[in-house]
Every structure is written in structure tokens, then in C-alpha cells.
Amino acid sequence: MARPGDPVGEIDTPALVIDLDAMERNLARMATFARGAGVRLRPHAKMHKSAELARLQIAAGAVGVCVQKTSEAEALAAAGIADLFISNEVVAPHKLARVAALARELTARGGRLAIAVDGAEGVARLAEAIRAARVEIDVFVEIDVGQGRCGIPPADRDPAAAVALARQVVASPGLRLAGLQAYHGKAQHVRAVEGRRAAIAAATAAARTTRDALERAGLPCPLVTGAGTGTHAFEAASAVYGELQAGSYLFMDRDYADNETDAAHPPFEHALFVMAQVMSVSADRAVVDAGHKSHAIDSGLPRVHDPDGRRRLAFENGGDEHGILRAAGGGPLPGLGETVWLIPGHCDPTVNLHDRYVGVRGGLVGGHLERLIPIDARGAVT
Ligand SMILES: Cc1ncc(COP(=O)(O)O)c(C=O)c1O
Question: Is the pLDDT of residue 329 over 90?
Fold first, then answer.
């Protein structure tokens, strides 16, 4: 196995490689953007599942990170992260007991845990677990601003729902109403800028109406949190959202790169690659050692990276352990043993297929292995 200092060519394949220089530029661009826009940044760590990367984000100015699952929160907390928001609903009593225990632990460490809710039964169960653990937790009422997933209707669709749920939170000892979660996931991948802008304009209007309804009812709404990589500049400019949850900006997958670009959003670079090696060649194809056990294909196949502009290759699915490369535009096929860099279609589920990142410094061509980075919450899906 390659060790720190070894040239890139010695990394065993397939490997999940971070181009550390590119990732650090992405990290800095988003931190600078959030600071300039006057909003908090709480990146989504469901994407990278790594305490080391969360620490880098926090060192660059993030207030903490989001996670999606109880076990993800536990894994990152065990690896040293103390300010976590489970931006998702948890309703199983045995899991809520773990949430309460974690809230207690993080509070004792000077940190904090927050969670989202979207129903009366969920709030009652959370309150029961929190009461039993004699602790407090920040609670965000989640509203559905267009994703059609979790969340109660915003006040423009149901004037009473959010007020009633927020009132229940406030009336539950140990639960602190922290604001609203208003995340529009579907808007992130609308290709046209105008489509994304319109979706977030509607989400913002719904969030504003709901926040105003809470405040009119005498309920605090200190923060509206949401946004992803594809739209965060719109939420940041809304004067409604106070916190951005973008995650994928750190790595930039192929699917995000397929969005129409927009000057309002910082430019992010591909920083996550599956490094693969050609293991078989024939007249019309080359076969690499990375199939969909190395990269997720829910958002489509990887794109073959062309770092030195030498050739264009098309990737075809070759199954679990194989990828088939065809020459696109008449260029040459790579030879046996050559390295090929794949840009995954979707970074989050790709990361979950690997135990560690291989951090490369000095570029994919000619760089060296700087460090291995654990994926602490790999497989943490409960
Ligand atoms: C609740 C929530 N917030 C933020 C994000 C971050 O989105 P992205 O990684 O696309 O920036 C996600 C991603 O699915 C999410 O589910």
C-alpha cells in the first residue's frame, strides 16, 4: 500500500482520491462567500462523512456541520466534532434515546446537538427522550418548500400547521425552538439557472410567510436554515435564510458540473476522483478496474477526467468491478496499466462505498500521496 510521500502512481486502485489543492480552494471559496454574504455556514457532512474534513470546514469559519442520521452524528462526535445538527426527523424511541444521550455528551463538551421535526408525534417522542436524559436540544421545525419529502406545509399553504407545531416545541420542557429548516433538494439539480432561481424564490416566500406567522404568534424564529450547492447564493441573498447547509461544493461531482453555471455562485472545482487502472485492452475498448462498487451511479455514470487535455474517453457501465472506456472524438485509448481518473456522478453515495480517502498534493499528474483521511461515518446509515 502506498504511504505518505509516495508518488501518485503508486496508489493502489481503485482508490477514492481527493485532490487536496482543489478541495482547499473549494473550502476557501465557500467560506469567503458565506462571510461576504453575512450568513452562517453549516456544511452538510452527510456528503464527506469525515471528522477531519468537518474540522477543516469549521476552522475555515463554519459554525458546525449537519448530518442526516443518528449514527452519522455519533460517528462524527466520537471523532471530535461537537456542534452537530441532525437535519432530519428521528422517530424511533430507541434512536431518540441515543439522540438524547448524544445531546447530553455534546453539551458536556461545550458543544450542542440540534434536530429537525415535522409532526406532533415526533415532537412528543423527542420530548420524552430528552426529558428522560435531563438535557436540552435545539429543534428546527421543518417545512416542505418544494422538495415534497419531509416537512409540514408552510404557512402560505396551511396557516395553522407550523404555528401549532412550534407551539408544541416551546411547550415541551428541554426542547428549544431554534427556527425553521427549509431545504429544497430538488431545486439543486435543475439545470437552468432561471429554474433554480425561481424554485428558491418560491421556497423563500414560503419560509418568510412561515417565519412571520410564528413571530406574529409570539414564537421565536431566530434562524431559517437550508440551501445546497446548486442554489446557496439565492438563499444567501434572500434576507430570510441565515444559514447555508451546502455540502457537495467541497468535492463537486459530475452531476453538479452539469448544471448551467451562474456568476452569483462561486466556481467550484472537481476535487474527488476514483483513481482506476486499465486492466484489459482490445481494439475498440479499454477496461478499468472500477465499477459501481467504487462509484455510485444513481445520478448517472462517472465522467472520465482529462487532466492534461490529451484524450476524450467515454465511460460505459461494465458492472460491479469494471468500467468500459471508448475513445470519444477519435482519440487514442489508454494502454494497459495506465491510470484513469473518474469524476463520480454523485459524491455522497460514492464516499459511502470507501473506508478512506487518499489525499493527493501537487496535482493528479505528478503529485504525491500526502495523507489518508478516514471516512468515519462510512456505513452509518441508521
Ligand atoms: C437537508 C439537506 N441540506 C443540505 C444538503 C446539501 O446539499 P448538497 O450536498 O447538494 O450541497 C442536503 C443534501 O441532500 C440535504 O439533504
Answer: no
Burial 39-63 (b: 16+ CB within 10 A, else e): bbbbbbbbbbbbbbbbbbbbebebe
DSSP 8-state secondary structure symbol assigned to residue 266: P
For the stretch 308-317, contacts whose Cβ atoms lie closer than 8 Å and that sit 24 or more positions apart, written own/partner, are 308/365, 313/286, 313/340, 315/342, 317/291, 317/292
8 Å CB contact between 364 and 358: no
Pocket of ligand 1 contains residue 85 by CB under 6 Å? no
Q: Which residues is 179 bridged to in the sheet?
A: 140, 223
Q: Is the CB of 323 under 6 A from ligand 1?
A: no
| Residue 243 CA to ligand 1 centre (angstroms) | 13
Per-residue pLDDT band for 306 (boundaries 50, 70, 90) equals: confident
Task: Measure the CA–CA gap between 186 and 190, rounded to whole angstroms.
Answer: 7
What cell numbers appear for 338 in the block? 495506465
pTM, entire model: 0.97
Distance 363 CA to ligand 1 centre (A): 28
Instruction: Measure the CA angle with vertex 379, ends 322 and 372; round to 5°.
Output: 75
**What is the best residue among 69, 84, 188 to mutate for testing ligand 1's pocket, by most ligand atoms within 8 Å of CB?**
188
Residue with cell 417545512: 143
Cα–Cα distance for residue pair 54/44, rounded to 1 Å: 9
Q: Is 349 in the pocket of ligand 1 (CB under 6 A)?
A: no
Residue from 280, 276, 327, 282 nearest 302 by CA: 276
C-alpha dihedral over 267, 271, 272, 275, to 10 degrees?
Answer: 130
Burial class (CB in 10 A: 0-12, 13-18, 19+), 38: exposed
Q: Given ligand 1 and candidates 40, 144, 231, 245, which is best to mutate, with the most ligand atoms within 8 Å of its CB?
A: 245
Q: How confident is the model at residue 1 (pLDDT cuts 50, 70, 90)?
A: confident
Out of 30, 39, 46, 90, mutate this one to test ligand 1's pocket (max ligand atoms within 8 Å of CB): namely 46
Cα-only R_g, the chain: 22
145 CA → ligand 1 middle, Å: 14
With a 6 Å cutoff on the Cβ, whether 151 touches ligand 1 is no
